[in-house]
Design goal:
Elements (H helix, E strand, L loop, with lengths): L5 H23 L29 H4 L5 H30 L4 H23 L6 H28 L6 H26 L4 H23 L2 H4 L4 H19 L1
Helix pairs in contact: 1-3, 1-7, 3-4, 3-9, 4-5, 5-6, 6-7
């Protein structure tokens, strides 16, 4: 059913439009420095947080009102849609390629953990709950890389659409790019120099856009999805429970 194509499309659009709108608001209110400004002349240093701006990461863009409310709403909405995406993709694998069920389950676990990490990061303001925010963000970034790698492996092993010969190289490129950008972001983020911090922010925006394009590619799979697959997934869970009881 073509209706299901809305899930990956909506997930990508909510993430993309939400995060860039948050950055736009933060930039308008001078809460973050411009992504194009590499000088760091007005960068907040030490305890000085007045009349200055923060490195334009996604987290710092959602630190202050009014963009903080939109930041939380965007992360919550994207997390919910991502959870649906993970579960429904797993249901698709079980319906079309049950022999890859174990690999799909591993992917599902990483996807769910990534979603909970993002939920924690989105609901823990980095200005007040810094440790919890960055812990959730770290878990989310790591697990989403592993999730993308497993989904790419499933693309190589499963025939869901017939277009896998085109989708696989695209997703493989996206997965490798995601891993490289995440590593660069992590290494540069912990540096003290403003230039490296600013560069890490650029890498963070790049990796989020890359992941959104990766998710958008699954619009092809969801063209072949149907509501029956969800009921079939629930039925299989009930059968597994029955076997466990007996």
């Amino acid at each position: 059913m073509m209706f299901w194509i809305l899930l990956p499309v909506t997930l990508s659009l909510v993430s993309f439009l939400g995060t860039w709108t948050i950055y736009g608001l933060a930039f308008t209110y001078k809460h973050v420095c411009p992504l194009t400004d590499w000088s760091g002349a007005n960068y907040c240093r030490g305890n000085n947080t007045e009349d200055c701006c923060f490195v334009p990461t996604i987290s710092s863009s959602g630190m202050y009102a009014p963009e903080s409310s939109l930041f939380t709403a965007t992360i919550n909405a994207a997390t919910f849609l991502f959870l649906l995406f993970c579960v429904f993709h797993h249901a698709h694998i079980l319906e079309k390629n049950v022999c890859q069920a174990m690999l799909s389950k591993f992917a599902l676990v990483f996807g769910v953990v990534s979603a909970f990490g993002a939920f924690a990061a989105g609901n823990c303001n980095p200005g007040y709950l810094t440790l919890l925010h960055f812990f959730g963000a770290a878990v989310s970034f790591l697990c989403v890389c592993l999730y993308a790698a497993l989904l790419t492996a499933l693309t190589a092993k499963c025939v869901l659409t017939g277009y896998e010969r085109f989708l696989y190289p695209l997703r493989l490129t996206s997965t490798v790019t995601q891993s490289i950008l995440t590593t660069c972001y992590t290494v540069l983020f912990v540096q003290d120099n403003y230039f490296y911090n600013h560069l890490s922010a650029v890498f963070e925006w790049m990796l989020t856009v890359n992941m959104e394009l990766f998710e958008l590619s699954y619009a092809v799979e969801f063209c072949f999805f149907s509501s029956f697959m969800i009921s079939n997934l629930l039925k299989k869970r009930e059968e597994e429970k029955h076997l466990m009881l007996t």
